[in-house]
Design a protein that fits this description.
single chain, about 400 residues, two-stranded parallel sheet, mainly alpha, two-stranded antiparallel sheet, Serine Threonine Protein Phosphatase 5, Tetratricopeptide repeat
């Protein structure tokens, strides 16, 4: 086919795709369905998927995946005892096929390749072929809006059900749907968000994300106080995290990005984040993401803008908000920076354990294999703790490390 970057070889194998669909539908007619039977068929569907998929093929594909994942008319899937991850493998495969049908996940890669080919066409014509190797055109959705709405309806009902027990369960999915838009599904996801009363929050989060990525916006400190700080108090953690990330990006170079009087020092904004009554961890993670934490260590930029801050105490104050930190698409989570920074600090890990932050402590301990020198004390403390699950994990790891002679002194 002919595309923006030139002529590409045909992609997919419609006959093989139809054969795999036929076999999968036959397998779904069995009770129960064997994971070992459907897994290779799902792999074949992924590999042979035609670029110009038909409406019938797309409908049959998503319907089968909905059945296997329990999204709609669930079927029982059995797993061979020797295949510990058989059920998860079916779920992963179906999830990938569904997402490839609803989102244009190759959008950014496509744009990057197009720019690279433009460069090669002018300056290095002999490299055009190599640079188009992984180019994939815009996926074809052979459905009108009504047909797409009917096909998406079971998926949205399933997503709605997940949100009843986990209010942020939909964020990653809808973020992908609107940042990797694939009409007509994109508009249907926006309608669903608007119906839930979350459409404007998503639009504002995307605007904050784009302003941060462009890294050009300049504003006054008075606007900072009037427009950005209130967003840190928002009910929706998506808004809190993206507002904090944009704020963090301004502190990369506040002398250039911020204007006027009334400046907020690094100590002041960090103290403000630590005083938030909700979504404190989401705000802290977002701020660190925005200020380009991780170079050369997760908190070097914090130390630069707030040299007098007691970093360990600030971290512990953030963690006093014990509400589970939700996954927020587009920004990094607070725990990630903690386990990158404190994976060789047994004293801080023991503080985490003593304060009951077992998940964070465990990630710090297990970041290195074997754990860093001195972590034996932290493991022993965890093993004696009241959290039965983590106590068991810690004791088993201690036993294994001692058997292997792998503990540090």
């Amino acid at each position: 086919m002919t595309t923006r970057v030139g002529r590409l070889p045909p992609e997919g194998d419609s006959a093989a795709f139809d054969a795999a669909l036929d076999a999968l539908e036959a397998a779904l007619g069995q009770d129960p369905v064997e994971a070992g039977t459907v897994t290779p068929l799902l792999r074949q569907l992924s590999q042979s998927r035609p670029l110009h998929i038909t409406a019938d093929q797309l409908t049959r594909l998503l319907t089968a995946c909905y059945h296997l994942t329990g999204i709609d008319n669930a079927v029982a899937v059995t797993v061979d005892e020797a295949d510990a991850y058989g059920s998860q493998r079916v779920g992963w495969s179906c999830g990938s096929l569904i997402e490839d049908s609803l989102f244009d996940e190759r959008r950014r890669t496509r744009a990057h390749i197009e720019r690279s080919v433009d460069h090669a066409r002018v300056l290095h014509p002999d490299q055009i072929g190599d640079r188009t190797m992984y180019y994939r055109p815009l996926p074809n959705v052979p459905l009108d809006r009504d047909a797409a709405k009917a096909l998406l309806a079971p998926y949205l009902r399933w997503l709605e059900g997940r949100c009843e027990t986990e209010p942020t369960a939909h964020l990653k999915i809808v973020w992908d749907a609107v940042t990797y838009p694939l009409p007509p599904f994109e508009g249907l996801f926006w309608e669903w968000l608007d119906t839930r009363g979350e459409g404007e929050d998503m639009r504002l989060a995307l605007s904050l994300h784009d302003l941060r990525e462009r890294a050009q916006q300049r504003l006054s400190w008075s606007t900072f106080e009037a427009r950005l700080l209130p967003l840190l108090e928002a009910e929706n953690p998506l808004l809190v995290a993206h507002a904090a990330a944009f704020i963090g990006s301004l502190y990369n170079d506040p002398e250039d990005r911020m204007q006027g009087g009334g400046a907020w020092t690094g100590d002041r904004i960090l103290s403000h984040i630590a005083s938030l009554t909700r979504h404190r961890r989401a705000a802290a993670g977002g701020f660190l993401h925005g200020i380009d934490a991780m170079d050369p260590n997760p908190f070097s930029e914090v130390e630069r803008i707030a040299p007098d801050l007691d970093l360990a105490d600030w971290v512990m104050t953030i963690l006093e908000d014990r509400a589970e930190e939700p996954y927020i698409p587009g920004v990094q989570m607070f725990w990630f920076y903690l386990h990158e920074h404190y994976d060789r600090d047994p004293a801080m890990v023991m503080r985490f354990i003593e304060a009951g932050h077992m998940g964070v402590a465990w990630m710090c301990i297990t970041e290195n294999h074997p754990p860093a020198e001195g972590m034996e004390r932290a493991l022993e403390l965890m093993a004696k703790g009241s959290d039965v699950d983590y106590a068991g994990h810690a004791q088993r790891l201690l036993d294994r490390l001692r058997d292997d002679g792998a503990l540090g002194s």
